[in-house]
């Protein structure tokens, strides 16, 4: 360690440290602990630059992961919590609320490959609640449960019409096989085509 110390000899103020595992830290210390702004480089190639409180990532910071992904946003007690943006290794992005390191609350997920985006609610990292799934020339407005659309909703087409209907869970057929059946995808059952209407999944709450 090179840097400032307090009268008790603890790291205090600005300093640079090399840890026994090969990681390095350069930044602020308070009474022997990383507190304030600093940059921590991991031996595996990851890097965090941002706020610390008592050795934990806390406040605002950017984390670069070894796979090329990156998170920029709020941290609480070493976890992604609050509001932040995550760029995934495949180019997808999520911008929105976080809790306990997971997507949780309101957020927008953009799929790089298709350009589609999910705008709506998340629970513990999974799409869950009222949302819109926006594609290039149409969008779906409805509710999601465990990452899949379920219940009433509508497809809105850019040409100016809507298809109303609902996603229903198909009935699992009883089979005598030992293996657990794969969960079936919900099936869309259309009811009517209309002009554009103001219906939204929040109306039923």
TrEMBL record:
Residues 1-10 have a biased composition (Polar residues). Coiled coil: none annotated. It is found in: Cytoplasm, Cytoskeleton, Flagellum axoneme. The keyword Metal-binding does not apply. It holds the Pfam family MORN. One of its GO terms (cellular component) is motile cilium. InterPro entries: MORN. SMART domains: MORN. Residues 1-23, 170-205 are annotated as: Disordered. Keywords: Cell projection, Cilium, Cytoplasm, Cytoskeleton, Flagellum, Meiosis, Repeat. It comes from the Eukaryota. GO terms for biological process: axoneme assembly; meiotic cell cycle; spermatid development. Functions as part of axonemal radial spoke complexes that play an important part in the motility of sperm and cilia. PANTHER family: RADIAL SPOKE HEAD 1 HOMOLOG. This is Radial spoke head 1 homolog. It comes from Phainopepla nitens (Phainopepla).
